[in-house]
Design a protein that fits this description.
The protein is of the alpha+beta class. The chain has helices at about 1-20, 25-35, 55-65, 75-85, 90, 95-105, 125-135, 135-145, 160-165, 170-185, 185-200, 300-305, and strands at about 45-50, 70-75, 110, 150-155, 205-210, 215-220, 225-230, 245, 250-255, 260-270, 275-285, 290-295, 315-320, 345-350, 360-365, 370-375, 375-380, 385. Strand 17 (about 375-380) and strand 18 form a beta hairpin.
Length: about 400
């Protein structure tokens, strides 16, 4: 036992020596001490792929220095896909008992991840995906009873990779530089600006969204108050479930009244698991999708809805980007949630935002260059945030 303790101390000392020279040290310290505010004795689960090894080492050391108890879990995307496709459906539908146990003991989660193969999940049959989502129902319920704090590093496309940058037709170096710059944005300044905007999004407020591509949609904010993701979990607490923040930070999101959406949502380019859906047109009535049309691959969206509860068709979350250091690249090829003035609408599961739909099934649609009014007053004009009055 004494030998094991000595080896553990030597291992941690070696990690500290390596991470002190790591370019990720400052990022790790910000996540651990500012975003999560890790306390002595807390169990912190760090999850990532081999591509994030150096980052996970820096996170491990930062957690240990804060008095936390770091646990690293390695994600294996290619093995996960192979197992997903080859295991019998009866096993695919089993809930992970380990994940249920972990949800009870973990105080914090830190998710890292990058897309090394954008097409990896493009051939997944929707019926298998539906079985896997159903197996997560007990776990989703367990999370609603938990008080975990969660940080996810990597927005649309995760932490930039060369393969992902190539798939969306943008410069990898430019994407990577913008990503880390927007991770380092002044959280406090964003929080101040976000509070001004969120004050306009009161429960019952009527929002009107239009785009030059043909979106013409109105909907109403639910009874919930908006949630501000400005980099600290303590600012994103909802009534039930974990408190989570996403980095790069910079969003306001709020559930939508599930009976309120009326009109048409047009999405010129939508990536569905590596398959491009072109000119998707969704018509809403009384809050729910009543028709789906597209110029290409529209049947994938129709099949998705057929495999899930009717509530998956409900317009469920409104999301508005706030981060001044993040913006679209390659024309509009790369868009992410945190970009200032970018609007994203979700259908389906909104439990993560404090809503009432908890199915694990959802889709989200970006609306760049949109114009948005709140109770008749402009908040976004042609994709640019308007100064709140």
């Amino acid at each position: 036992m004494r030998t094991l303790v000595c080896l553990s101390v030597l291992f941690l000392t070696a990690l500290i020596a390596m991470a002190q020279t790591s370019e990720f040290t400052a990022v790790a310290d910000k996540i651990v001490n500012h975003s999560l505010e890790v306390k002595p004795g807390e169990v912190v689960i760090i999850i990532g792929t081999v591509a994030e090894n150096e980052l996970m080492e820096a996170l491990y050391v930062s957690v240990a220095k804060a008095g936390g108890q770091p646990v690293v879990q390695l994600s294996l995307p290619f093995a996960s896909k192979k197992a997903f496709m080859e295991m019998p459906e009866e096993y695919l539908g089993m809930t992970s008992t380990y994940d249920l146990f972990e949800a009870r003991i973990a105080d914090c989660y830190i998710y890292t991840g990058s897309v090394q193969d954008p097409d990896l999940w493009s051939d997944v049959p929707e019926e298998r995906a539906a079985i896997a989502r159903k197996s997560q129902d007990p776990l989703r319920y367990a999370y609603t009873l938990s008080h975990n704090r969660v940080v996810s590093l990597g927005q649309a496309g995760g932490i930039p990779s060369k393969a992902y940058a190539e798939s969306v037709g943008v410069s990898y170096d430019e994407l990577l530089a913008m990503f880390w710059k927007s991770v380092g944005t002044d959280f406090d300044k964003m929080l101040s600006n976000g509070k001004q905007i969120s004050a306009l999004l009161k429960p019952g407020s009527i929002l009107k969204l239009t785009t030059k591509e043909g979106t013409n949609l109105s909907f109403k904010i639910s009874k919930n108050e908006p949630v501000l993701n400005t980099g600290r979990t303590k600012d994103t607490k909802i009534d039930i479930g974990p408190t989570a923040t996403y980095l790069p930070a910079g969003e306001i999101y709020v559930p939508i009244d599930l009976t309120s959406a009326e009109g048409t949502l047009v999405v010129t380019r939508f990536d569905f698991r590596g398959n491009q859906v072109e000119n998707l047109r969704l018509k809403f009535a009384k809050g729910s999708i009543v028709s789906v049309e597209a110029d290409k691959n529209g049947e994938l969206i129709t099949e998705f809805f057929e495999q899930h509860p009717e509530s998956t068709k409900s317009l469920s979350v409104f999301d508005l980007g706030l981060n001044p250091d993040s913006h679209p690249l390659g024309g509009l090829n790369y868009i992410s949630y945190e970009m200032a003035g970018i609007i994203c609408l979700f259908v389906g599961d909104n439990s993560w935002a404090g809503g009432d739909i908890s199915t694990g099934a959802s889709l989200n649609f970006f609306q760049p260059d949109a114009t948005l009014t709140v109770n008749g007053k402009p908040l976004v004009i042609d994709g640019k945030l308007s100064t709140p009055e």
